[in-house]
Please model this.
Amino acid sequence: MEMLSLEKELTANPYPGRGIVIGKSADGKNAVIAYFIMGRSENSRNRIFVEDGCGIRTQAFDESKLEDPTLIIYAPVRVLDNKTIVTNGDQTDTIYELMQQGKTFEESLRTREFEPDGPNYTPRISGIVEPSSNGFDFSMSILKSANGNPDSCQRYTFSYENPLSGQGRFIHTYKVNENPLPSFEGEPKLVEIGNDDIDTFANKLWTALNEDNKVSLFVRYINLEDNSTQSRIINKNK
Model:
């Protein structure tokens, strides 16, 4: 599989929707996580990320303009013990709660399916980072309709053991900016992860996202030696 430039992938697509990146820095010192949201409607664009304990949640920027919170207000990132969960919806809570009960990441997601927002039927994308004897492992999942047909839910989980330094995976909700929005296809994209400090990396991603459609970005570095974290939030609404 060809390794892609994450910046070029973002620049080339004006509306990938919501996206998750997980990988390892080129020096092998950090697990790298990024999550971004975009919006085309006023309701979707009226959001910010705010810190919530060890994770984050979305919040209306202007409460007076909030129309329907159902699919836009949720906790994208939560930490369960030493596991970091990141998703594009309230399935974060599903994963967190069922894993507390002994279920696996994949088993937890079998209780959910794509979002009920026809005709797009937005995929639910999820990721989890778990420490291991080799540093860390991670998994990604996508739950999507059958090419826009909601009668069938297509479930895919991709697991990556001991990820290689300088490499990451990128999954996003929409393939291209069309109407209705077609779901992401295939395996999460192999993307290059460099040795940038967290601020440089976050700013590169934020700059690459479409100026009109980008809403918020979250980036976390997890130090693989001591499990300490650095996090950054960038919101368009200020």
Summary: The chain has one domain: 6-235.
